[in-house]
Amino acid sequence: MRRLLVTGGAGFIGSNFVHHVLEHTDDHVTVLDKLTYAGNLASLDNLPRERFDFVEGDIADAALVDGLFSRVDAVVHYAAESHNDNSLHDPRPFLDTNIIGTYTLLEAARKHDRRFHHISTDEVYGDLELDDPDRFTEQTPYNPSSPYSSTKAGSDLLVRAWVRSFGVNATISNCSNNYGPYQHVEKFIPRQITNVIRGVRPRLYGAGENVRDWIHADDHSSAVLTILDRGEIGETYLIGADGEKNNKEVVELILELMGEPRDAYDHVTDRAGHDLRYAIDSTKLRTDLGWQPAYGDFESGLAATIRWYRDNEDWWAATKDHVEAFYASKGQ
Ligand code: NAD
Ligand code: DAU
What we know:
Elements: E1 3-7, H1 12-24, E2 28-33, E3 52-56, H2 62-69, E4 74-77, H3 84-89, H4 92-112, E5 115-121, H5 147-166, E6 170-175, E7 178-179, H6 188-197, E8 203-205, E9 211-213, E10 215-216, H7 217-230, E11 236-239, E12 244-246, H8 247-257, E13 266-268, H9 283-289, H10 298-311, H11 313-329
Parallel strand pairs: 1-2, 1-4, 2-3, 4-5, 5-6, 6-11, 7-10, 8-13
Antiparallel strand pairs: 9-12
The structure holds nicotinamide-adenine-dinucleotide (NAD) and 2'deoxy-thymidine-5'-diphospho-alpha-D-glucose.
């Protein structure tokens, strides 16, 4: 039985990965999570205790990390400050966790010679024009725009340096925008779904022409497991499911699926430095490792996500008012 350490496993994508691993493998999972505002233990309810344990702590705590690395075979690193809007308001935690935290984990991976997979984002590549025929590939130069994406780019470069200089057995993946259950209500899709549930009109930044390349979180998890099992050490893999949509289309679809008029939303103040378009070419992952997404249809995945938020109001209700007060203070 492989023993995995999953950092950030109480967050959105990390918790989806823990559920996926426990369902599809025999692995044992230890989650290390600081339980920041974004971590929620309820996302890990009802897991088999003999195959799962939880440690509350900071990835930048070298002594804690050292002890945990000595007990596992491989590490999947999701923990991060993840929200662009927060990084524009207060960048410091992004440096502490995304840079110093990743450095701390890499030093432990080096000392204990552990397999390390680093989770990153397509935002490290900056943005594309709406009519650009090209998509991001593993060869696209780094050009991050926000404090969040620049700290993720920095963490990727640390991983590459630790592979080359110290022989750390690491891989990196850069994924596009995820949707699905357990996503914090600060993010675009859950914010709009929970607004509609509360009878509040969705909020679209600027004109709503910005394009994101949507992938279901469970497809992200299957891709990460594939890379962990079969990825080549030192390589980077882009993860995407050909799901480009502009924000206006997504809001209109949410409203339609929730039985509201498609135009019942408001335009609000745009995000500073707002990236225009992300688009992933995942040919390398599909060709070299044989991965395929399972959720082909965004509309049915979105409908299932809406049902999840309707059925799990207890999971998100306590954080909604605080999030909306933050956005209101910024005219969003
Ligand atoms: P999230 O904000 O939902 O979860 C982050 C988790 O990390 C939380 O549980 C939080 O408590 C934990 N955490 C934060 N700082 C920590 C620290 N110092 N020590 C230990 N735990 C800490 O984020 P997410 O959306 O699930 O993203 C997870 C990872 O995936 C991030 O690395 C992010 O860059 C990457 N990613 C996200 C997306 C997306 O669409 N959300 C897409 C591609 C890549
Ligand atoms: O591309 C991967 C990235 O996707 C991850 O690295 C990040 O961790 C993740 O948060 C996400 O970043 P985005 O900034 O793209 O996601 P967000 O959900 O914040 O916003 C998605 C789009 O929707 C973006 O163009 C901004 C817009 N938006 C967002 C909110 C919260 C709105 O129009 N209205 C909103 O209320």
